[in-house]
Amino acid sequence: MATAPKLRNPVFCALDTPDLGQATSWAAKLADTVGGVKLGLEFFNAQGPRGVSEVMRASGLPLFLDLKFHDIPNTVAGAVRSVVPLKPFMINVHANGGRAMMEAAAKAAHEAAQTNLVNRPLVIGVTVLTSMDDSDLREVGVTESSFDQVRRLAELAKISGLDGVVCSPHEAQVLRRDLGPNFKLITPGVRPAWAAANDQKRVMTPHEAVAAGADYVVIGRPITAAPDEAAAAKRIVMELAA
Ligand code: C5P
């Protein structure tokens, strides 16, 4: 099966909560505005696959299932096969797991989509967590700068058959140039000019991130912590289109 069709817009709202009622409420409120929603480990470990399906029913929106698989190739392939029937638009694995692991993930996504007669999810690599700086990397034995390590892992993700990577908006321009127009770049660390940065350190606006080459931008609290979530999302989408 082919990958899912084009989205309404590039904004994925991160529904960061362990609570099913909260996630479905956000999802329903955002159904007419954002391009998709993201559920991660906090939600999945509390609510499981059934919770994911309920949120998808509430919004009808494409889902980025952000579970960052990282294990031996056989286990990651099994994890991918287990989530494909949930019909996510996009899933991810740690690029640090290496070439064989990423190849196994890509192959499993393709095969499971065919078996289940669903669209194949995009399989995305997580490069270097933005919470890690160069000294954190040195502690785990990586002597390259974090930027060089991101470039290395993104290149490896591409060679291994992944569809794209998660990266900082500050890395997007170079990765777009290095990896070509079809490799997907997904950027968190994005803030509209009117929103608080929270704990994000080096932010760009959604408009700047897309101009730098991002295909999809992940935005959480500027939407979910706003008094009117749908209005905040609409404002972001309108600013992107301007
Ligand atoms: O609320 P906020 O917009 O900061 O949420 C961003 C989302 O993107 C969160 O779900 C966060 O875990 C995720 N993320 C991130 N930075 C990364 C990778 C993921 O902020 N490098």
Describe this structure as you would to a colleague.
The chain is of the alpha/beta class. It has a single domain, classed as TIM Barrel. Helix content is about 45%, strand content about 15%. The protein has ten helices and eight strands. The protein has helices spanning about 20-30, 40-60, 75-85, 100-115, 135-140, 145-160, 170-180, 205-210, 220-225, 230-240, and strands at about 10-15, 35-40, 65-70, 90-95, 120-125, 165, 185, 215-220. It has an eight-stranded parallel barrel with strand order 1-2-3-4-5-6-7-8, surrounded by six helices. Helix 3 links the parallel strand 3 and strand 4. Helix 1 (about 20-30) crosses helix 2 (about 40-60), helix 3 packs parallel to helix 4 (about 100-115) and helix 6 (about 145-160) crosses helix 7. It is globular, with a radius of gyration of 17 Å. The model has no long low-confidence stretch (mean pLDDT about 95). It binds cytidine-5'-monophosphate. Cytidine-5'-monophosphate binds next to strand 8.
